[in-house]
Amino acid sequence: MQEKKSNRTLVLWLLTIVYMVNFIDRQIIGILSPSIKADLGFTDGQLGWLKGMAFALLYTTVGLPIAWLADRYSRSKIVAVSLAVWSGFTALTGMAGNFTSMLMARIGVGIGEAGGSPPSHSMISDL
């Protein structure tokens, strides 16, 4: 019984850390907006697209198919792949030199992060 409880605790802590990274990654464009605007010369409208639509559109539409996959395949693998995908696209966001490349990177972040919550919620409910 103690082993099961320690496994549940470990899984909960790992998923909490993954969610914290997810949350920070969602907020980073907003936090760095003044610096991005000054460095790359983006307009307020472009920053709005990066903070809102580019991310949210894919995050919400890809979340449903990923939730479907989470019911049929390994949820822990889906979370791991999603973490790798959104981390990679976050790195590409940092390397972007123009609006189009940053927009594509933020879309990739939204797709990757969409795979974090549905499988995590399912894993927690199983525990």
Describe this structure in words.
This protein is an all-alpha fold and 127 residues long. Helix content is 89%, strand content 0%. The chain has one domain. The chain is elongated. The mean pLDDT is 87.
* Helical amount: over 70%
Class by SSE composition: mainly alpha
Count of distinct structural domains: 1
Q: Biggest sheet, in brief?
A: none
User: End-to-end span in angstroms?
Assistant: 13 Å
Topology pattern, helix = H, strand = E? HHHHH
User: For the CA atoms, what is the radius of gyration?
Assistant: 16 Å
- Name the beta content range: under 5%
Low-pLDDT residue spans: none
- The best one-word shape is elongated
- Counting DSSP H or I runs of 4 or more residues, the number of helices is 5
Total strand count, please? 0
| Chain-averaged pLDDT | 87
From the structure above, extract its key features.
127 residues, mainly alpha, 89% helix, 0% strand
Which SSEs are present, and which pair or pack?
Blueprint: H1 2-40, H2 44-70, H3 75-95, H4 99-114, H5 117-126
How would you briefly describe this protein structure?
The chain has one domain. 89% of the residues lie in helices and 0% in strands.
